[in-house]
Hints:
Layout: E1 9-13, H1 40-52, H2 57-77, E2 78-82, H3 83-94, H4 101-116
Antiparallel strand pairs: 1-2
Helix pairs in contact: 1-2
Amino acid sequence: MGSWWLIRTYSVRVRIPPGTSHMAISTTGRDERIDLRVSAELKTLLARAASYSGMSLSGFLVSSASERAKEVVANRETLTLTARDWRVFLSGLEKPERRRPRLETAAKRYLGRRTTRGER
């Protein structure tokens, strides 16, 4: 039998900028519509699954898609670190900020280019 190792990991969540979509799903105000075209076989399968779940086809599709969407977004917005990487991450946060002239110059150059092209 193989050896088992216990590796402790830490998750870091990213802050979602204001004005962007987030994970909360409104259960009221359902005024948006999505139209789908599927094969007869897939519709039959989905209807059977909805029936087995005690849900309407529409409710089943919304519930399933919502769960999957939350999973995909969480996978993209969560960074999982090993214990060693977590310590390195924390130590980087605890270090006092130091000036980085080359980075400042690059940022100014980038912002200058964006401004000349009419971007904000």
